[in-house]
Specification:
By secondary structure, the protein is mostly helical. Helix content is 69%, strand content 0%. The chain has 18 helices and no strands. The chain is globular, with a radius of gyration of 20 Å. The protein starts with 5 loop residues before the first helix and ends in a 7-residue tail after the last helix.
Length: 312
C-alpha cells in the first residue's frame, strides 16, 4: 500500500504518543534526519525504520510496505555492497555499483555519499593507488556537510568531530578516513578518529542503533593503530575488547581479522609460542574454508596485508 508513506505514518504515530522529534530520535538518528524522514525528503534505512517503530510501539508494518520498487532496489543494493566489501568480492562490487549508479537520479545526498565511498573502496580493492585516499574521503564527507573541511584538521586534532550521532554513513566514511591516515603512517591522527568513533558507540541507546559488530570493528582498527605505534599492551587490550564483542556478533570474517592481528601482536612481543599457535590456527581455518579463496580473499596473504577493516 504505497499510499501510506514512511514519514506520514511515523509522524502520525509520534504525535499520537505525544513525543517530540528529539525524544523519538534519541540514540537512533539526529532530529534533523527524523525531520527529513517525516517530510518525505529522506528514506530511512531498514534498521532506522525498525528502531523508530519499536520506540513508538507502532503498527507492525514491514519495511517493504512503504517502498516503491526503486526505493526497495536501492536499499537492497546498499546491503549487498556492504556484504561484497566485507568479503572483498571485486567483480560483484563493480556490478552492484553499476546498478546503483543507474538509480542515483532523485536519490538523497546520503545515498550519493554511500555510492561515492563504495566506489572509492572498490578502487582500493582493485589495487588503485592509496595516495589520494584521505583527500577523497574528506571530499565525500563534505558532500553531507558543506564547509566542514574548513577546520577539519583542528577538529581531528582535538577529537571534536561533530558527527551526527547514529549517522552510520558518516561514521563509515570517518572510519575509512582514519584507515587512509594509517596508510600514510599517521597513526596518532588515525587513532584519534577511531577513539572518537568508539566513544560514539558508548551507551545503550547507541547499541540499539548499531550492532556489537560495529564496536568490534572499531576496536580492531584501534588495536592495529596501537600495534603500529609500538603500544603493544594497549593494542592487546583493545583486541580483547574486539574479541569479546565479536562473540556477541561478528561472524567468521571478523574473527579471522582479529586472529591475524593477535598473531601480529604476539610476534611484536616476541611471544613465539602464541604466535605459532595462532598462525597454525589461522592456516587450519583456511584449509577448512576454501570458499574464502573463491570469494577473492587470496588466502592467508590477504590478512597479512589488510589488517584494517573498511566496513562498519
Amino acid at each position: 500500500m504505497r499510499e501510506v508513506i514512511f514519514g506520514e505514518e511515523i509522524r502520525r504515530v509520534r504525535l499520537e504518543r505525544g513525543l517530540t522529534q528529539e525524544r523519538l530520535s534519541e540514540g537512533i538518528c539526529s532530529p534533523s534526519t527524523l525531520s527529513r524522514i517525516e517530510n518525505g525528503s529522506q528514506v530511512p534505512s531498514r534498521r532506522t525504520f525498525q528502531l523508530l517503530m519499536e520506540r513508538l510501539d507502532g503498527p507492525d508494518y514491514s519495511y517493504a510496505h512503504f517502498l516503491s520498487p526503486i526505493e526497495y532496489q536501492r536499499e537492497r543494493i546498499k546491503e549487498e555492497i556492504i556484504e561484497a566489501i566485507e568479503y572483498r568480492q571485486v567483480d560483484r562490487m563493480k556490478d552492484l555499483l553499476g546498478e546503483m549508479e543507474d538509480l542515483l537520479e532523485g536519490g538523497d545526498r546520503k545515498l550519493t555519499q554511500f555510492f561515492e565511498m563504495s566506489k572509492l573502496v572498490c578502487y582500493e580493492m582493485c589495487g588503485a593507488s592509496r595516495q589520494d585516499y584521505v583527500n577523497r574521503c574528506l571530499q565525500i564527507l563534505e558532500m553531507g556537510r558543506p564547509g566542514w573541511r574548513e577546520d577539519t584538521d583542528l577538529r581531528i586534532a582535538w577529537g571534536r568531530l561533530d558527527v551526527l550521532r547514529g549517522d552510520w554513513v558518516e561514521m563509515w566514511i570517518l572510519n575509512n578516513l582514519a584507515i587512509g591516515y594509517m596508510w600514510q603512517q599517521e597513526y596518532e591522527r588515525a587513532c584519534q578518529i577511531f577513539a572518537f568513533l568508539y566513544r560514539q558507540t558508548e551507551g545503550d541507546a547507541f547499541i540499539k542503533k548499531r550492532s556489537w559488530k560495529t564496536k568490534g570493528i572499531i576496536c580492531n582498527n584501534i588495536a592495529v593503530c596501537l600495534l603500529n605505534m609500538g603500544k603493544l599492551e594497549e593494542a592487546g587490550e583493545y583486541l580483547k575488547k574486539a574479541s569479546a564483542l565479536s562473540h556477541r556478533e561478528g561472524g567468521i570474517n571478523l574473527f579471522l581479522h582479529l586472529l591475524q592481528v593477535k598473531m601480529e601482536i604476539s610476534k611484536a612481543m616476541e611471544d613465539r609460542e602464541n604466535y605459532y599457535r595462532e598462525n597454525l590456527l589461522l592456516k587450519q581455518l583456511y584449509l577448512q574454508m576454501p570458499q574464502y579463496t573463491v570469494l577473492g580473499m587470496g588466502g592467508c596473504r590477504f590478512y597479512y596485508e589488510q589488517k584494517e577493516l573498511l566496513i562498519l
